[in-house]
Design goal:
Strand content: 25-35%
Number of strands: 12
Structural class: alpha/beta
Order of helices and strands: EEHEEEHHEHHEHEEHEEEH
CATH topology: Rossmann fold
Distance between the termini: 33 Å
CATH architecture: 3-Layer(aba) Sandwich
Oligomer: single chain
Radius of gyration: 18 Å
Length: 292
């Protein structure tokens, strides 16, 4: 029997999933607890109570955040995804102190507790997907990892270890490192970085505040794009100006995949981003929709 905590109208209710069809199990907001590597970890699922298979987007918060924080920050984007038939799971990083909502992810060379404790994020992701699929109707051919900052490092580094193949990754204002694991061809990627990012610099200059949480410098963003293009077997990109100071490069890649890269002069490190004349949320949604 799978225990579920349903959050409805601010109240937390215990729900038993036994003997109920997947289409009827999940209300619009559900908190699941999964056990990974002997530790209980939560996630927040937003899904429509329908029987039609739903593509699943797993969203990873930045360092120092939490699933709850990311769900609040991304509520409008999640509403947009739900309106287009996606299920959305807000994933929860690890903290040295149980219950503390200053959580990080193991990106190999960042960040803080999750890095030093060598947390197995791949097992957590696999356990989360299995738990969600037991409660909601998931289209297993369209599972996506989307992360901001430290959460984006999960999307970069962990797909190769997963038992479940992902269809694509979305990486926002994050960092790739020199020992980046190979990402299998056939996986699509959407990457964005801004030139005015004062947390993870576009040119990979290593800010002193990062040294407390990192143990290696990242690649410059353009080097990360080139590395990704080689891994995915991509051709030369078609570059378009999307708005003042915003360019998009579209690569066609092996096995029907694509690599979309957005560079903006402004927008900073934060998520969501405010970029004049350009909607990042719409661009991400269109990318996801193309991955059939």
């Amino acid at each position: 029997m799978q225990g579920v905590l349903a959050v409805i109208g601010g109240l937390t209710l215990a729900v038993c999933a036994m003997g109920v069809s997947a289409a009827d199990r999940v209300p619009s907001n559900t908190v699941f607890t999964v056990t990974s590597d002997g530790v209980e970890r939560e996630l927040i699922l937003r899904a429509q109570p329908i029987g039609t298979p739903q593509p699943l987007v797993l969203i990873f918060h930045g360092g120092g955040g939490s699933a709850q924080f990311m769900a609040r920050r991304s509520s409008s984007f999640a509403d947009l995804l739900l309106s287009r038939g996606y299920a959305v799971a807000f994933m929860n990083g690890s903290s040295r102190r149980d219950g503390q909502n200053l959580r990080t992810w193991n990106g190999a060379h960042c960040c803080a507790y999750a890095m030093t404790a060598k947390i197995d994020e791949g097992d957590y992701i696999d356990q989360a997907i299995a738990t969600i699929a037991a409660q909601a109707t998931v289209d297993r051919s369209r599972i996506f990892l989307m992360g901001h900052s430290n959460g984006g490092m999960v999307a970069y580094r962990w797909p190769a270890t997963l038992r479940t193949k992902v269809r694509g990754i979305v990486v926002i204002s994050s960092a790739m490192f020199a020992d980046q694991p190979t990402i299998l061809q056939g996986i699509s990627a959407f990457l964005i970085h801004t030139r005015d990012d004062d947390n993870i610099a576009f040119d990979a200059s290593f800010a002193p505040k990062q040294k407390r949480a990192w143990n290696a410098p990242p690649l410059p963003f353009l080097d990360a794009e080139a590395r990704m293009a080689r891994m995915l077997g991509c051709d030369s990109p078609n570059e378009q100006k999307m708005a003042e100071g915003v360019t998009r490069r579209d690569h066609s890649c092996a096995k029907g995949a694509e690599l979309t890269v957005v560079v903006s002069a402004t927008g900073g490190h934060a998520w969501p981003k405010s970029i004049p004349g350009f909607s990042l949320e719409d661009a991400i949604l269109k990318f996801l929709d193309r991955q059939q």
